Amino acid sequence: MTGDFLINTVEKSTMKNGKSYMRLKLYAPGGKLWPAVFWEDRDDLKSGQVVEVMAEESEYNKEPQLTIKALRISKKDPSDIFLPRTPYNIDGLYAELQGCISLVSDEKLRALLELATVDERWKRSPAATMMHHAYLGGLLEHTVNLCRLAKAVCELYPTLKRDLLLVACVLHDIGKMDEITCSTTLEYSTDGNLLGHIVIGLLRVEKWMDELAFDDELRRQVRHLIISHHGSQQYGSPKEPMTVEAQVFNNLDGIDANMGKMLAAISKTAPDKEWSEKTDFKQRLYLGPIAKAE
Question: Are the C-beta atoms of residues 25 and 83 closer than 8 Å to each other?
Fold first, then answer.
């Protein structure tokens, strides 16, 4: 295999004999992410560089990887050709998001979501760097998926406050826009590393609620939906869900995040395999003879 790749991450490792070598993650054009090993010690390789590579496909811990035979740094413009992106139409997703916001009956909450969605980064931001929806437009896709789930579950359980669920769908990950940079690679920003998207998002939403003169109770509900959406302190939430809508939203968020992880693993799997590549929660999925036959 030969061609141009974009370095996503690079780190130096050491063999038992003390010799140093490089472990990389490389984006191929179109966004496929390859783990790679280069049995040379190089100090000039950095995230965001385009490199010309000659490599062989190999396997490490039963996972596919590239073993690099030769590598040269290129001066080509990386632009967006290497970054993965949502397979769905961005403008269509954004229009659907606006339609969901129009369903919010509370004027203050609807105005809050309108303020939150004028940011052009909605059409580019990923939802993660490695886990679920880790590609351009991933945040928008994830958000719209959650809005669809919220509308469906409110049909089944009409006592749920749909306005609050839709607010959670739109605002819970809005801090990802500042947490993750996506110029040439998907990486955590300085604020992303120091604060995280829950804190960043809460600070942004607080400013909008100040502008709209939210009352204490409505402000409290919105705050809680944002800070509890990961479900527990173990997973980064300052507080566990303590309202019905917060708990339901945590469940819906888990559904779409886990579906994203599973679909990503399946997409990396060769069509003749019974079992998928490992998901981000480290298990393989049985695809069965039907998927194999396809």
Answer: no
